[in-house]
């Protein structure tokens, strides 16, 4: 599965990337909204791991763009803040499939990634320009 990890903390981005690579996935990293949008415009991904707060703003426009152009792309929002405390991410940001709180438990991430991989087999990502 092709994964885009959008995280500005280089250490955490490395841990997430190494973990996903160890599970057999191809990983691309981005640290800003602008870089993430560029990646989404040029490469088809199956999974998006998206930090909520990035140096150039709140990252929800990235999930909105991904949902509009790649409807089957699965998105995991990573946050260290109290955003979406009652699971309302799907209502406020329809492109978000799951929310994981930092520090991220790799076992939890692995379970979601395994589910997303199965879903990607059933519903392949088909992006529009």
TrEMBL record:
Sites of 4-aspartylphosphate modification: 51
Listed PROSITE patterns: RESPONSE_REGULATORY
Coiled coil: none
Listed SUPFAM superfamilies: CheY-like
Record keywords, A-Z: Phosphoprotein
InterPro entries, A to Z: Bact_response_regulator, CheY-like_superfamily, Sig_transdc_resp-reg_receiver
Annotated signal sequence range: none
One Pfam family here: Response_reg
SMART domains, per the entry: REC
UniProt cross-references to Gene3D superfamilies, sorted A to Z: 3.40.50.2300
Domain (Response regulatory) ranges: 2-117
PANTHER family in alphabetical order: RESPONSE REGULATORY DOMAIN-CONTAINING PROTEIN, STRESS RESPONSE REGULATOR PROTEIN 1
Protein name: Response regulator
Species of origin: Mesobacterium hydrothermale
């Amino acid at each position: 599965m092709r994964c885009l990890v959008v995280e500005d903390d280089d250490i955490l981005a490395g841990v997430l990337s190494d973990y996903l690579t160890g599970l057999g996935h191809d990983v691309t990293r981005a640290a800003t909204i602008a870089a993430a949008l560029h990646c989404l415009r040029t490469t088809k991904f199956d999974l998006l791991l998206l930090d909520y707060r990035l140096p150039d703003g709140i990252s929800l426009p990235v999930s909105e763009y991904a949902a509009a152009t790649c409807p089957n792309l699965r998105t995991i929002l990573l946050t260290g803040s109290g955003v979406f405390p009652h699971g309302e991410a799907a209502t406020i940001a329809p492109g978000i499939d799951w929310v994981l709180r930092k520090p991220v438990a790799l076992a939890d991430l692995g379970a979601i990634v395994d589910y997303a991989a199965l879903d990607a087999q059933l519903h392949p990502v088909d992006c529009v320009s």
